[in-house]
Each structure stands twice: as structure tokens, then as C-alpha cells.
Write a structure and sequence with these properties.
Helix content is 21%, strand content 32%. The chain has 427 residues and is an alpha/beta fold. It folds into three domains: 46 residues, no CATH class; 146 residues; 168 residues, Single-stranded right-handed beta-helix, Pectin lyase-like (Pectate Lyase C-like, 3 Solenoid).
């Protein structure tokens, strides 16, 4: 009987061992997986998720916004109002966040803002500052809006830092109408249907540095009387949206249009239609930029006078390194201009441009210079004061000529009368 029990125990032990060995590949992964889930839940912080909030409009009523739970803080320099961690759908018919008529200190941080504006022509933005100062816009994502971030109407002393304003229907960032003394730094403005960054209508003294504005139609535009903006150390490349190939006059890394005294330095401007295009603009400084592999021209000046092009590296652009058209008195020096059909071209409607101390390599022609000499006429009509002086001189000459003729006729009459008197006396 004991022998039977012993045999039974041995049999059950062997059977159990076989079952465990056979099933272990299936049992232990489940056990480990359960432990792994427990570990992830305990130690891994999941990504932030938020419920979609309503749009925010603050018209200098920060106290009401604070009561409503939209922000905290007091509006001082060391304790600004803070709008943070919102997820806002603009519903294609509103700005996501609009701050208006405000001069207190505030911060908008870590918000995700989308669907402000349904198409190219609307003016809605993920973030809109209207007549608003002293804001810090930091680490927000603004996509699929008409404008990513828009400052307008005397918005000043704001900082736009480390935001992503990509894939918008119109522009990534706009400084529009007397928006001055703002700082734009370390942002991404990529793949927008029109412009990465646009500075317009008398917006002065803005600093734009270390940003990426790529894969737009135009990387940066400075236009309509905007002056003294500092554009330093940015990447304005691959702006050939949408097809990757451009038509002349359509896509640019940088375009300056009727703007003066801007400083463009140390930027990367590669693989655009034109690298830097300057139109009807004066007194701008283009220094130490890298301008490579653009589809047409490295730098192109049209009807633009007294600009400085200094120490730029301009290479492998498909047609001309620097093209100067209908322009006067520009100073082009110490540039490296390599591997073009023509290094520098000056057309017959330009004059008085100074081209000195540049280096050339690998161009089919280094310089083709058809410009007029400085004293030669033909570019523009003379100033109105010269015209008036000329007319005055002509008028004086006519008066003098007329007076001489009158005096001559009077003298003839006098001589004739004298002769007649002498004849009568003789008789």
C-alpha cells in the first residue's frame, strides 16, 4: 500500500513538473507583463492631457479672468498673471486667446491652440495681442490657425519665446502696425502657407533671433516703413512652399519691401527661390549671412539705394550671386561669391554702386557691369527744386533778351529821329 502511494506521489510530481515546464512560456510573460504595467503606473508620468476649453478674451479685465479661474498672479513684474496649460479649439470662427488693451505683466505658457480661422483670408490667430504690452508668450503650440501668433496695433515690449507656430493657413507670426521693441527668440515658424515671420506697417526696433522659419513661401518679410529691426542668427531656408520648386518672384528666404535701416546678420538663407530680395528699400545692412543653393539669386536689389552688402558668403545659387537692378549707391564689399553663372550683375539702369574687395571663385563670369557712371543722367527725373531753378534762369534770360531788344529798338528810333532833325536843319 505504501509502495503504491509512493509511486502515485512520484507520478504526480513528474506530471506537475511536465505541466509547469510546458506552460511556463505562457505563464511567466503574463506575470512579468503585469509587473511591468505596475512599474509604469508607479514611476512613469503620462503625457499631460486637458479637456478642450472655451476661447479666452481679456480686455483689460484680468481681475475677472482670475475670478473665473482663467489665470493666477497679480500682474506685477515679479508676479505676472499666468494663463497656462489650456487646450483651446477656436472653432474656425474666433481667436483662441485674445489679450486686448493691456499693460500689466502676464504670461501665456504651454497652451495648445488650434482652429482659429478657417481659411487663408481670415485674421484670427491662436494668440492675438491687440494694443497689449509686457507679455511673455512661451512654449505654446499654435497650429492650423489663420495666424499662429499675431501682434497688432501698438503692441510693444512683448517676448515670444520657444513657441511652435507651424502649419497655419496664412502666417506663423505677424507684427502688424506700430508693434515695436518686441523680442522674438528660439521659435519655430515652419510650413505655413504664406510667411513664417512678417514685420509690417511701421513696426520698429524688434529683435528676431535664433528662430527657424522654413518651408513657407517666404521665411521673413519686413515691409511698409518698418525700420531698425535686428534680424540675427536665424534659419530662413527651404522656403519653396508648397511644391518644393519655385517660380521667380514668388519665394524668398528674406524679403525687404519699402523698409529702411534694418540689420540682417549671421542668418542661414539656403534653398529658397531668391535668398534675400530687397525692393525699393534704403540704408539696410546685410552682413555675414550664408546664402547658398537658392533657385535664382543669392541677393537681389531692385530700385534700392544706399544699402550695404558686407562679408556675406554667397555660393552655388543657380543664376547670379548678387543682382543689382535700377539701384544707386549701394556698397558691396568683402563678400565671397562662388560658383554662379555670374557673380555680380549690374544692369544699365543702375549707377554709382561701389563694388570692391570681393573674392570670386568658380563663376562663369565674376562681374558683368553695365551700370551708368555717377554723373550720367538717365535713372530718375531731376528733383523739383532743380527744375524750378532752371525755369527761373530761363525766365531771367528771356527778360534780359527782351530788355536788350527793347533798348535796341529805342536806340534805333532815337537815331532815326536825330537824322531827320539834322536833315531839316541842313535844308
Amino acid at each position: 500500500m505504501n509502495a503504491f502511494k509512493n509511486k502515485k506521489a512520484v507520478f504526480l510530481t513528474i506530471l506537475g513538473f511536465i505541466i509547469i515546464t510546458t506552460c511556463s512560456p505562457y505563464i511567466f510573460p503574463l506575470f512579468l507583463a503585469r509587473n511591468e504595467v505596475t512599474r509604469l503606473n508607479l514611476y512613469d508620468k503620462p503625457p499631460r492631457t486637458s479637456n478642450i476649453s472655451g476661447t479666452i478674451h481679456i480686455n483689460n479685465n484680468w481681475t475677472d479672468a482670475k475670478i473665473a479661474g482663467i489665470c493666477n498672479g497679480s500682474g506685477s513684474w515679479n508676479n505676472p498673471y499666468v494663463i497656462k496649460d489650456f487646450l483651446i479649439d477656436g472653432g474656425y470662427s474666433s481667436n483662441c486667446i485674445k489679450i486686448q488693451n493691456s499693460s500689466v505683466y502676464f504670461r501665456i505658457e504651454n497652451c495648445t491652440l488650434f482652429n482659429a480661422g478657417a481659411y487663408w483670408g481670415t485674421l484670427y490667430a491662436g494668440i492675438l495681442l491687440d494694443h497689449t504690452n509686457n507679455g511673455l508668450i512661451i512654449q505654446n503650440t499654435c497650429s492650423n490657425n489663420s495666424y499662429g501668433i499675431r501682434l497688432t496695433s501698438y503692441s510693444r515690449n512683448n517676448t515670444i519665446y520657444k513657441n511652435n507656430a507651424n502649419d497655419n493657413h496664412h502666417r506663423g507670426l505677424v507684427l502688424d502696425t506700430f508693434c515695436s521693441n518686441n523680442t522674438i527668440k528660439e521659435n519655430n515658424f515652419n510650413n505655413n502657407t504664406s510667411t513664417g515671420i512678417w514685420v509690417r506697417w511701421n513696426s520698429h526696433n524688434n529683435t528676431i533671433s535664433k528662430n527657424n522659419a522654413t518651408k513657407n513661401v517666404i521665411g521673413l518679410v519686413i515691409s511698409t516703413f518698418s525700420e531698425l529691426n535686428n534680424i540675427v542668427d536665424n534659419n530662413f531656408s527651404y522656403n519653396t512652399f508648397p511644391s518644393g520648386s519655385s517660380t521667380i518672384g514668388e519665394t524668398y528666404g528674406i524679403r525687404i519691401n519699402r523698409a529702411e535701416n534694418n540689420y540682417i546678420a549671421k542668418n542661414i538663407v539656403n534653398f529658397n527661390g531668391d535668398g534675400i530680395n530687397i525692393y525699393e528699400s534704403k540704408f539696410n545692412s546685410i552682413l555675414n549671412n550664408s546664402i547658398f543653393n537658392n533657385g535664382f539669386f543669392g541677393i537681389r536689389l531692385i530700385r534700392s539705394d544706399e544699402n550695404r552688402l558686407l562679408r556675406n558668403k554667397i555660393s552655388f545659387n543657380d543664376q547670379i550671386g548678387i543682382k543689382i537692378e535700377e539701384s544707386e549707391s549701394n556698397f558691396v564689399t568683402f563678400n565671397e561669391i562662388n560658383n554662379h553663372i555670374v557673380g555680380i550683375h549690374l544692369d544699365s539702369q543702375s549707377k554709382c554702386n561701389v563694388i570692391v574687395n570681393n573674392t570670386f571663385s568658380g563663376n562663369v563670369a565674376d562681374i558683368t557691369d553695365y551700370q551708368r557712371i555717377c554723373g550720367e543722367n538717365g535713372l530718375t527725373p531731376p528733383p523739383i527744386d532743380i527744375v524750378l531753378i532752371s525755369l527761373a534762369i530761363i525766365g531771367i534770360m528771356i527778360l534780359i533778351t527782351g530788355a536788350v531788344l527793347v533798348l535796341r529798338n529805342l536806340l534805333r528810333i532815337k537815331m532815326r529821329n536825330r537824322n531827320e532833325i539834322e536833315k531839316k536843319e541842313i535844308k
